[in-house]
Amino acid sequence: MMKLFLFSILFINILMASSVTPQKEIEMGGSVMDMKIVDDMLYVGTDEGTLEVYDLKAEKIVETVQLKKIHDFMGDLMNPKVYSVDIVGNKKLLLSEGEEGARELYINENNVTTKIISKKDKLTMQKAKFIDERYIFLGLLSNEVVLYDLKEKKSLYINQLSQSKFSDFALNEDKTEAIVCCESGINYLVDVKSGKTIKVVEGGNKDNVFKVDFKNSKVSAAGQDRIGAVYDLKNGGIKTFNAPFLIYATGLSADASLVAFAFGMDNEIAIFNLNTNSKVYDLKGQKSTLNSIIFYDKDTLYSGSDDKYIMKWSLK
């Protein structure tokens, strides 16, 4: 009887989730690869070799950084994919596709784009984010993490976390720690300054974790095993949410009271209240496979997918 009662409560909570459609559809110049929000500006990396800056208040693109074309394996010119973007001060960071499948890292500052790490450095970079104006934290395909010193123009460490393939990382608010996920389903909490593993975070996912987010001492993990997991690093608690399809993206609100997961074959986004463990919103209208979900504030979020369209959602 108790099991039936608990199931009934869960079923009611799911039924009570509000259905939300996009408030606005924002078209970029290419398919969205990565997104970052800083100071009312949305920074977007695309597969057309661009970092596009969208003013969230004015609702328009105010700047575009275009990288030079590269040669594909057939020798034809093409725009490089921009896999990862970031911003600190006046510096914009672009991790892009290079010649012959290599990865290259650029900084654009005062309308000048400078290559920081090139093909010859042989770093299979998958993601790059600023720690501050001097240091950049990198995740490599080999599941190694790197702290790169822009002043000294060298890597301060290259530490391998495991033999599994790297998937994603997310930094905490003060950028002193990173959570790194990989194909094993195990996550690693890493000290950014040293590159050392602080603790292993596991138990929610048994297979590849595609994406992670890290807010207010909580980590959300989007799993290939159709499980969305949320880890509380303070008390060691784990909450899991079962989806009907692979979960490709996740995002946490600033206070980590809400978590969003890609949640279905039709590219829906489900938002759960972590205080009540209930699904409170169903977001429907994304056109392609999700890869980015960012909360702008507690009532607004933006999502990107494998097409040109970013969706703005209002939960009010």
Provide an overview of this structure.
The chain is mainly beta. It has two domains: 24-160, YVTN repeat-like/Quinoprotein amine dehydrogenase (Methylamine Dehydrogenase, Chain H, 7 Propeller); 165-316, 7 Propeller (Methylamine Dehydrogenase, Chain H), CATH 2.130.10. 4% of the residues lie in helices and 55% in strands. The protein has one helix and 31 strands. The chain has one helix spanning 2-15; strands spanning 18-20, 24-27, 32-38, 41-46, 50-55, 60-66, 70-71, 77-78, 82-88, 91-97, 103-109, 112-117, 125-130, 135-140, 144-149, 154-160, 166-171, 177-182, 187-191, 197-201, 209-215, 218-223, 227-232, 238-242, 250-252, 258-262, 269-273, 278-283, 290-297, 300-305, 309-314. It has a five-stranded mixed sheet. It has a four-stranded antiparallel sheet with strand order 2-31-30-29, with no helix packed on it. Strand 27 and strand 28 (278-283) form a beta hairpin. It is globular, with a radius of gyration of 19 Å. Residues 1-14 have low confidence and may be disordered.
